[in-house]
Amino acid sequence: MSNVDGAADLLVTNAAVYTVDGERSHAEAFAVRGGRIVVVGSSDEVAALRGPSTTVLDLHGAFVMPGLVDVHNHHSHAGRAALFELTFSNTASYDEILSAVRAYAATKGPDEWIVGSSWGTGLLDLLGHAQARRGLDEAAGGRPVLLTDDSHHNRWASSRALELAGIDAATPDPERGVIMRDPETGEPSGVLLEAAGLLVEDVARPAVALTAAQQEQSSAHAIGIVHSYGITAFQDAAISLDQMRALKALDDRGELRAWVVSSMTVNDQIFGYAELGDALIAHRAELTGEHHRPDFIKIFLDGTPPAHSGAFLEPYLPSDAHGAHFHGTTTMPADELLDWLRRTAAQGISAKIHCSGDAAVRMVLDAVETVRAEGHAAPLYQIAHGQFIAESDLPRFAQLEVSADISPFLWFPGVIADALSTVRPADEVAGLQPNRALIDSGALVAGGSDWPVSETPNAWEGIEGLVTRADPSGQRDGVLGIEQAITLAEAIEVFTVNGATAMGLGAVTGSIEPGKSADFVVLDRDPFGIPADELHLVTVEQTYFGGEQVFSRN
Q: Are residues 204 and 215 in the same domain?
């Protein structure tokens, strides 16, 4: 309960406070009243606000900064996977995946579905043979299995799952999807790219559907995890109606202890949501709450490069399946994209648009240019991922006020960069994620984990990658385009105030300033006082949201 005499509810004192305000300034203390920061300064300055019921948090010199902001995750999917599905590392080998399936199958009934994630994209060629599917059948004891890859765009299904979905050698590829076939026999291998996965998802869904209470559990569990990494605000990058209802239910009970911006899914070739586009937007007003803000739509404008579903200006590397002149395609034509942006802008709705290829990026910039010229200055636009951007398009981000929603977790040396190298020219891959060029051009760059595509939402892994352009785990040598490295101060902004601004919460959170929500974290070390290759070791000791502790390491 807030003090009525003007005293603070909470004083944070004797701390090394990195405010991430416009001056990137430092302070020693701050005061909180009614969940908001009221004064930032020295310990002596805030001491004047101490009253008889004020809580004093003396941090003995610990490093304090704003709560971290994740502009791109799929929190509900991550919570669901942790509570109700099989999970294994995206670095797992084929044999390790089979071992995980075998152990999990032992807990299931004879024909119960096994749903899980995430196999590495680098296994695509191996899994594209029927022999690999037969190994999955044996491990699962003949049960139906549907496993998602590390991009969460593609699936691997067992023979029983294919049978239940009615997929055989005669089944044609669905629109915007590919049923990978054994190169020798022509039978379905079990690998289903993009929309082909929905053929099995549609059959599996009734068997593995969550109740409303389980959906709320999934969200709450995921939010507990992001709190442990110091995240106090995030944008769910492609949400469904039942997931939005879960967030609103938590919010109504006062249990949603984070700022959550939802991106209402317009088109969906990977999740199999029942309601899309206008059917989802129709529920926006009723599902808006104090902390839940369904203010964006999400458009998947292309897929993923390793599956040849990203849309590029220059062709892919030559392949037997696609020839030497294949560019990939977008999921919708330019006029349809423009129609979505126009109609939602008129409703005050912003947009996050998935673009893995530079042709998709250009299509978005062209559409936004038209919408801006027609007078729609207010909507926020984010290009999600944008690993590949044509050099001539870089300055257009700032000119058109389009944010770059970047996921550094997905490009430093590792399995995904390896997979990209098999389909795109080496010079393109070396220049992945041109963050230095974007920032220098004046663009707003905001950081997202894409968790559970990334194995954790630990922003410090992403921050280290932004600074070093190397693999924070140390498992892969080398760097990717060191000339695109940014400073630590800039990287912290990417995962705090920039993310908040890109989500429409710049006046609410993202920095420690008077008037903003008292969302902050206490770290185990000063990130500015350690080598850059140790940033991934930074650990959150405490997380506060609205001036109340939501996580403590101890």
A: no
